[in-house]
Amino acid sequence: MSNRIGKAAYKPVGVLLGLAAGTIAGVIFRQVWSLTSGDGEAPSATDEERRWGEILAAAALQGAIFAVVRAAVDRGGAMGVRKLTGRWPD
């Protein structure tokens, strides 16, 4: 079995996992933001009422959470493909 099979098997899985990771990361971010800031809603970059520090802190936190969730989901997906195909997707 060639490695192309592993890659081909992972492509649709990777797309679905990417969507799931974004959703999961968004939920986690909103919960963490609410707990740490005491504010129910994170600021958007164009929110005139919010200060630069708060906006940049929210963006950094959101990016870190997304990166960790995405890496965990991608790794799990790759491991699943290896179990199914016997090959690690590159």
Alpha-carbon distance between the two ends: 14 Å
Element string (H = helix, E = strand):
HH
Helix fraction bin: over 70%
Class of secondary structure makeup: mainly alpha
Total helical segments: 2
* Major sheet summary line: none
Got a strand count? 0
Q: How many discrete domains?
A: 1
Strand content: under 5%
Uncertain regions spanning at least 5 consecutive residues: none
Roughly what is the average pLDDT, rounded to an integer?
Answer: 87
**Gross morphology:** elongated
Whole-number radius of gyration? 18 Å
Please give a handful of descriptors for the protein shown.
elongated; mainly alpha; 90 residues
Describe the fold and architecture:
- With 90 residues, the chain is mostly helical.
- The chain is built from 2 helices and no strands.
- It has one domain.
- Helix 1 runs antiparallel to helix 2.
- The longest helix has 35 residues.
- The model has no long low-confidence stretch (mean pLDDT 87).
- Keywords: Membrane, Transmembrane, Transmembrane helix.
- It comes from Micromonospora viridifaciens.
- Pfam families: DUF4235.
- This is DUF4235 domain-containing protein.
